[in-house]
Automatic annotation (TrEMBL):
Organism: Candidatus Hakubella thermalkaliphila
Protein keywords: Hydrolase
CDD domains documented for this protein: MurNAc-LAA
Domain MurNAc-LAA: 111-222
InterPro entries listed in its UniProt record: Ig-like_fold, MurNAc-LAA_cat, N-acetylmuramoyl_amidase_3
Name listed for the protein in its UniProt record: N-acetylmuramoyl-L-alanine amidase
Amino acid sequence: MSLPKGELPPNRARRKTKVKRVTTLIVAVSVFLSMFSPWLTSTAQAAPGNYLIVLDPGDGGVVGATGPTGLQEKVVNLDIALRVRDRLVGAGYRVIMTRDSDNPVSLAQRVDIANRNNASVFVSIHTNAVSNREVHGTETYFSSRGAPYGFHLANHIQSRVVINTGSQSRGVKDGAFFVLTHTTMPAALQEGEFISNPDKEALLRTDAFRDKIAQGIFEGIVNFLNEYGAATISPTNYTYRAAYNDYQRTPSSLSPGQQVSFPFAVRNLSNFTWSSSPPNQVNLSYHLYDSRGRMVTSLNGLRSPLPRNVAPGEVVEFTATIQAPTSSGNFTIAFDMVHEGVAWFSQKGAGMERRTFSVGGVAPVAPIILAVAPSPAEKSPSVSKE
């Protein structure tokens, strides 16, 4: 049978129609996923049973911050935390609450709950308040003095809370809060909105707005665990020790913002081999402190990677890189090893190697003692440099 030019036999025409329908469906699904990929992709990748989340509803017991019409922060904090808990448990995650009723819990107790249970992440949930009733917005804190990856946890939570609530983003901020600096896992403190703002207090009274904050925190935690989760499971039998040698090459003066590299050596005094491969590699890094002992780098120092795996007792030589602050003054640099996603060595009791330098022509001063000094066995490695 001959057909007009351009026509297909019925069976081929049906196949072509099916192909078009399948193609249309694929395109539609792709568009849908592209619209919601920051959340849906993470949900599909989650491995919930591997992780324990400690949720910390701020305050409790005594009356803390209250809104213009009397709404109490401690009540809002607990209610939002319970909503986050229900979402996490429903998704298969393990959750511990530092409080599940209006009972007082000290900061030390909150930290102990997280550390003793070897939590994967710690999230403290708060509501903000200031004297200026016009201030509004949401912000999330991490601490550069805390465990690694705290910034990334805070960043994920901040992003999702802003998207879910539509609140003004006040950003991710570095804060030396006790629960952030004393926990041994990635930790963040979320401030949902300002209860001191009359309009926001009215919103915080509603289930709908509390749900939006809770959903944002939930999504932020899940997204973080999907991206960095493998790095949050800490070995419990490791000892962290290192000895450093900068060959007296750490500069005594730098220009503002100047970056320099120089030879460096480290001896592995730990009881495990330092890996040079992600995700849990060991790197050399540092902390910077000003003349008053305050940390001045928001994300700690630059990382200097090891060139190879380093067995216990071995010395490895490589190039270290540091960067000066942009402001002038006297500074102390404290070299510290970091087991990525697990711990800074100094958090585990290891000593840091300290040097002082000036920025902008200011004469250097004696170093500030910031942590436990190295034991005699942890002094600089006995390696020579020609």
